[in-house]
Amino acid sequence: MNTDLSLLSLFTDASALVKIVMLILLGLSIVSWTLIFQRGYALFQAQKLFDAFQKRFKTTTDLNRLYDYLARRINNDGVEEVVRAGFREFVRLYKQEIGQEAVMVATERAMRVALAREEESLEQHLPFLATVGSISVYIGLFGTVWGIMTAFRALGSMQQATLAMVAPGISEALVATALGLFAAIPAVFAYNRFSAHTQKMIRGYDTLAEEFSGALNRRLHSQSWQETSETQPKEALVD
């Protein structure tokens, strides 16, 4: 039995099934790390956009200016899309001169739908990280148990067993558990952190949507809303 305990040697000397387990765990680790960096960057950008838009909203007293800003934006992402959806529905129904309560109900419903879509976008790939964190250890443990069984079967055919003979086989088996932990620990950590960050952002989106709904409601009841269709292209809020 080979006594070289390098990682490459432990892999090459392992049984076929343990090799498959190691390759699966290595693949899961690579994919999860890729998603960790991708999700981390996406959440960073979303938080940056939210902070900037929240500051703009807090400092804007004229809703027409906010309307103009969103209309000029080619792509509205994150909380901007939530507010834009509410603005678009509000303007569309306001022009039809229907009841104020119906206008606000439809506006809030449009924002809730947009908020649900943004929540789904923010939580993208998080279930995969949770799955990797849950199953990787068990996959590694399966490889370890199988490897140990193989090692003991090999020892059973020998007349004299020594520690030098047992150690390599046990080491080969334990590598599977180590790989399982290597894949699971970052995935669990990232999932918990990203989930907490996502929920915090969703609460922020929801709060800002409520504030925006209140601003629209006050403007509607004050009867001071200025029609913007004459100065802005209709498709600015429709496309």
From TrEMBL:
A family per Pfam: MotA_ExbB
Domain spans labelled MotA/TolQ/ExbB proton channel: 79-204
Compartmental location: Cell inner membrane; Cell membrane
Topology of this chain in the membrane: Multi-pass membrane protein
Transmembrane regions: 16-37, 126-149, 169-191
Keywords: Cell cycle, Cell division, Cell inner membrane, Cell membrane, Membrane, Transmembrane, Transmembrane helix
Superkingdom assignment: Bacteria
InterPro entries: ExbB/TolQ_transport, MotA_ExbB_proton_chnl, Tol-Pal_TolQ
UniProt entry tagged with the keyword Metal-binding: no
GO cellular component terms attached to this protein's record: plasma membrane
Main location: membrane
GO process terms (BP): bacteriocin transport; cell division; protein import
Summary of the function given for this chain in its UniProt record: Part of the Tol-Pal system, which plays a role in outer membrane invagination during cell division and is important for maintaining outer membrane integrity.
PANTHER family linked: PROTEIN TOLQ (PTHR30625), TOL-PAL SYSTEM PROTEIN TOLQ (PTHR30625:SF3)
Family: Belongs to the ExbB/TolQ family.
Subunit-structure text: The Tol-Pal system is composed of five core proteins: the inner membrane proteins TolA, TolQ and TolR, the periplasmic protein TolB and the outer membrane protein Pal. They form a network linking the inner and outer membranes and the peptidoglycan layer.
Protein name: Tol-Pal system protein TolQ
Source organism per UniProt: Candidatus Berkiella aquae
Gene that produces this protein: exbB_2
